[in-house]
Write the structure tokens for this entry.
Amino acid sequence: MIALVDCNNFFASCERLFRPDIKNLPVLVLSNNDGCVVARSNEVKELGIPMGVPYFKIRDIVKRNNVQCFSSNFALYSNMSQRILGVLERHAPQIEVYSIDEAFMELAQLPQQDFFKWGEALRKEIQTDIGMPVSVGIAPTKTLAKLASAYAKKHKQTCLINPESDKKSYEEILSQTPVGHIWGVGWKREPQFKQVGIRNALQLANVSEAWIHSKMGITGTRMLRELQGFTAYPFEEEKVPQKTLMASRSFGHTVKNTHDLEAAVATFASQAAYRLRKHEQAAALFGVYLKYKTKDGQIKGQSAATRLVTSTNNTTELVHTALQLMYELYDEDYGYKKAGVFANHLSSANVCQVDLFDAISPDVKEKQKSFMQAIDSINQRYGSETIHIGSIDPGSTKWHALKKRMSPAYTTDWNQLPELHSLK
DNA sequence: TCTGGGGTCCTAGGACCC
DNA sequence: TCTGGGGTCCTAGGACCC
């Protein structure tokens, strides 16, 4: 059996942790640049504010209902995620982290056989220790565990699905699950299923393998088998290395000159290089993406990429490459709205293919490596921009995203620790 | 005026190999 | 006159996830 532990309204719940005064108020969290809604407390959901809606469209309803809005604060969210993971580790030895707010847990090796009791104990411990509300779903496959956790969220207690031992409740829960809520059915498939009369998960679980294959290919066959209780997506404890990486941001203001655009692109390239080093990976293909508005008002995107002679995660090399590509794309007539870099064909930094004709000798490469390590450890200790590449002018802030409603980094910055005042 | 930022997998078709 | 059968790798686009 596999458990899925899913945090309820994760970002919104994180914002509440250090703000008891907003415990009962509607809370929502906005995407980068305060653009659109990415998390909602239950009260916000009840107000009918949908996921992903642009902020300007809901400004009135926010004001009328005293909705508390926050810019996204990833320092806080990732730290809370780590803390919750710490609690999970005490309850089961094997954990697969699926996203910042969800994890699968393998229960096969657990001595405890009363899974409902186990789930309730875990849920209460996370609530007590961290203050985070979570839902626990337990089932023989990941797809069913996802379904169970959604049901658990609705009914506020751990949900167990097992088609073998309790067919009745399996059918009951699946019949109450709208087809669009199944893991793997998105905006495109949902209307297609509804058109042929499939409205809930139970109906989908009873179609033939040939039929689903004709509609969705191998992905559909897997989904069907998972719904029926047969594993198609096995539990994966070991972290598989990433295959691609991206660092991009929408700008707070339109950027026209190369100075600001350079600062932005160099920042993204540095971030990408740092993330590569952190995962001990190197990129063989590196590219730049720019989004802009033309003179006649059209929004367009352009990208350029280049194959690197030798895979690398060196900041100076990647920034240099990125700026070259940026200048290839740059047009002074455009107003730039967003930029980003991407790294593809990633491989382990330790087993990199070397190039016979590479101009940089192995001992210079070694020196560059220690140089990067030195920078990383200084930046880790004193803040991420303590040492940065020259093209990043810290005074160039025009491109910085708008974050007007950011909460403090309560748990990751000494200067932003919450203060307690005695009422004496 | 104002709409995020990451990822994964699958499929089809082209180019190429023996 | 008749023209096979088996592969790989790459890319773009679609669909999905959080």
Q: What stands out?
A: Residues 38, 98-102, 183-189, 216, 219 of chain A lie near DNA strand C (CB under 10 Å from a C1'). Chain A has a mean pLDDT of 93.
